[in-house]
Amino acid sequence: MPKSSKVTQREHSNEHVTESVADLLALEAPMDYKSSQMSMNMAGGGPPPIGKPDISPDLEDGRPAWNSKLQYILAQVGFSVGLGNVWRFPYLCQKNGGGAYLVPYFILLILIGIPLFFLELAVGQRIRRGSIGVWNYVCPRLGGIGVSSLMVCGFVGLYYNVIIGWSIFYFFQSFQYPLPWSECPIRRNGSQAIVEPECEKSSATTYFWYRETLNITSTIADSGGLNWRMTLSLLAAWIIVCLAVIKGIQSSGKVMYFSSLFPYVVLFCFLVRGMFLKGAVDGIAHMFTPKLEIMLEPQVWREAATQVFFALGLGFGGVIAFSSYNKRDNNCHFDAVLVSVINFVTSILATLVVFAVLGFKANVMNEKCVVENAEKILGYLNSNVLSQDLIPPHVNFSHLTTSDYAEMYGVIKIVKEDSFAQLGLQPCLLEDELNKAVQGTGLAFIAFTEAMTHFPASPFWSVMFFFMLINLGLGSMIGTMTGITTPILDTFKIRKEILTVGCCIVAFFCGLLFVQRSGNYFVTMFDDYSAGLPLTLVVILENISVAWIYGTKRFMQDLEDMLGFRPYSVYFYLWKYVSPVCLLVLISASVVDMAISPPGYNAWVQDLATERFQSYPTWALVMCFALIIVAMLPLPLVFIARHFNWLPDGSNKLSVSYRKSLAKEASTLEDETRFILGKNPSEAPSPMPSHRAYLGPGSTSPVELITNSTSISGYGSGYQTNPAPPKSES
Fold first, then answer.
1. Which of 69, 192, 226, 524 is most buried by its number of CB atoms within 10 A?
2. Residue 44 pLDDT exceeds 60
3. Is 179:185 a contact under the CB 8 Å cutoff?
4. What is the C-alpha separation between 259 and 249, in angstroms, rounded?
5. What is the pLDDT of residue 86?
6. CA 78 – CA 471 distance, rounded (Å)
């Protein structure tokens, strides 16, 4: 507060305070809050405490609220539990040591996942704004955090909805028997019927994905024009998303009752069905067999941290947006732990399902391998290339088991060591099939789809699976769209229906990039470059702005005021030291990995019917780095603009209820100040209740508490043309 203000002058003198701070606030009411700049800094630096107001937390500011706590929890679960839990987490488990991977994942979930998730829930719930409003309030110079978060949401939403479009296409294709990807198509060549060569060289499901669904080109440079079937599927996906979020949480909250719960029904059905499949136990045992030597590798911890980071949706703005519609006394700590645990358990459940089904698929493929190679051996026996003496007497080719084939294969390999390679026999080991790691679209649209063709009543299971993917994607898209629309609605006066429809229309036309015949390559590009690095930087700055600029002690006090109980002291150290260090290590490792990994994509080569890695052309490289730069550009721009006062302080855009609460708190504080100044310091009782003395480890003294609290009065009367920059809390 300026030293020339009336309140400060009288505070430093012995005069009795006669002018109410609430009256000063009332005098400032006609001021234009959008154009004015109000100092958000306290005497100790940084914005004022996000203390608990005495007003009703419901709809006093006209902000919508969740109909029930269950609706809110389902929304957060639907946003955090997405496609990555089904097709990314199982792959990382298999790649990084099986069951041993769960150890670093769980440790990092405790160290950075839950604390940062709790942090986002708390700031959103108390300030009741979207990502832009929250970070403008906490630290105006870092207000670019919210803008960058919004832009990342936009980039991710563009390609994420394309995946929902693919799932919609497969969903409708599943209503036929046999499934269209169960067999290779037959091509007529005059009187001859031949199998499609591209399908014969790969597999029926691979051919259907690359040729029938995507009709993909061989390079990213060859667009190939629009794929009209994928274009219609994308249109359907955006219509569904638009209808789900058009009324804000009033519509999306109701959708979440189904979209968040239905995937669990399907996963449990698949798990029960999968456990009765031959080879399912082999798949699960392979999955959870720990490889402890791999667990200590740095790459495993980096990928575990990245998965924790993205699994909870940190930095996207959806978490903050959802929590901003809560009551201010909601127990967000319980919510953070509950949603994080549900997310972790869901990942394990999905892993069990995936590897039960892939174990069955591996068993089927292994038996197929045995049959094919047994026919080769019979041919060599009939042509006298191999002697009958090489075949163990108990082997029966009519009922050949995998163990019999393995024994026969071993004998032939030893005896025919010199010419064994020319025979072209394969070992047909189940372990080799289980080690074929697949993730992403390769898991959902090829491997898992192929496994379902061997299920009895395969169309039913296919319909259920792709309907589950649609709902998983829809829950994440609702959170992503809320992360986009909520900050805009908080900042500008616009009808949410118009904004929602406008965003969906613009996103659909931008999404046409991904439904070209080369569109899958652009999906890969956006997935690799648009979110990873920018989002990590956003979360680091979120952590720093709260823990070091706003102040961890002050934030802990605010949480105690808001929740009504004292958060565990461990959060103080996690927010201030552990999480920032972990995030800095993560972003450094990500930059190094990006630098040493050649930028490129896996192109489908039609003639060879296989994928081949290709480097991005120059224009595509420029596009990759432009995605990163554009997403991070608001951070320095907003900082520079506010440092030189070129941009109004966004923290002034407070809700009506916030200004009322400040006036009421200031009035109460004025009474306390009169009472204190009217007595000797030794006689003056603390103006704070005893439970508010806690500010975290290294608590501030009661005198400092009074000083900091008194400085809130400057919040109403201390308007400044040039607000002082926030100072970090020691």
1. 524
2. no
3. no
4. 14
5. 86
6. 9
Q: pTM (2 decimals)? A: 0.79
Residue 88 has pLDDT above 60, yes or no: yes
User: What CATH number corresponds to the domain at position 350?
Assistant: 1.10.4160
d(CA 84, CA 98): 17
Question: End-to-end alpha-carbon separation of the chain, Å?
Answer: 20
Token pair listed for 312: 């909870």
Judgement on whether residues 327 and 217 belong to the same structural domain of the protein: yes
Q: How remote is the C-alpha of 420 from its chain's centroid?
A: 50
Q: How does residue 122 score in pLDDT terms, banded at 50, 70 and 90? A: very high
Domain count, the chain: 2
Q: Say if residue 397 is in the same domain as residue 471.
A: no
In which domain, by residue range, is 574 found? 69-365+437-659
* Cα(186)–Cα(195) distance, integer angstroms: 5
53 domain residue, yes or no: no
Report which of 147, 150, 144 is spatially closest to residue 640, judged by C-alpha positions: 144
Higher-confidence residue of 650 and 355: namely: 355
CA dihedral 548, 316, 298, 571 (to 10 degrees): 40
Grouping H, G, I as helix, E, B as strand and the rest as coil, residue 36 is coil
Q: What is the pLDDT of residues 107-116, one digit of tens each?
A: 999 999 999 9
Sequence letter at residue 684: A
Q: Is the pLDDT of residue 215 over 60?
A: yes
| Arithmetic mean of pLDDT, 449-453 | 86
Q: What is the distance between the alpha carbons of residues 138 and 47, in angstroms, rounded to a whole number? A: 6
Single residue among 608, 625, 659 that ends a domain in this structure: 659
Please choose, from the candidates 329, 326, 320, the residue with its C-alpha nearest in 3D space to the C-alpha of residue 55.
329
| Positions at the binding site | 78, 81, 85, 343, 472, 476
21 found inside a domain:
no
Condensed to tens digits (0 to 9), the pLDDT of residues 171-211 reads: 999 998 889 988 888 887 777 778 888 888 888 888 999 99
Alpha carbon of residue 114 to chain centroid: 14
Domain finish residue from 412, 435, 458: 435
Whether 229 and 113 map to the same domain: the answer is yes
Are 640 and 648 within 8 A, CB to CB? no
Residue 615's H or E segment, with its range, is: strand 610-615
Cβ proximity of 686 and 41 under 8 Å: no
684 or 677, which is more confident? 677
Is 674 inside any structural domain?
A: no
Are 278 and 408 in the same domain? no
Name the residue type at position 181: W
Same domain assignment for residues 400 and 465: no
Query: Are the beta carbons of 50 and 562 closer than 8 angstroms?
Result: yes
Is residue 264 included in any domain, yes or no? yes
Of 301, 418, 386, 340, residue with least CA distance to 120: 340
Instruction: Could you list the residues known to form a binding site for Na(+), using ranges.
Output: 78, 81, 85, 343, 472, 476
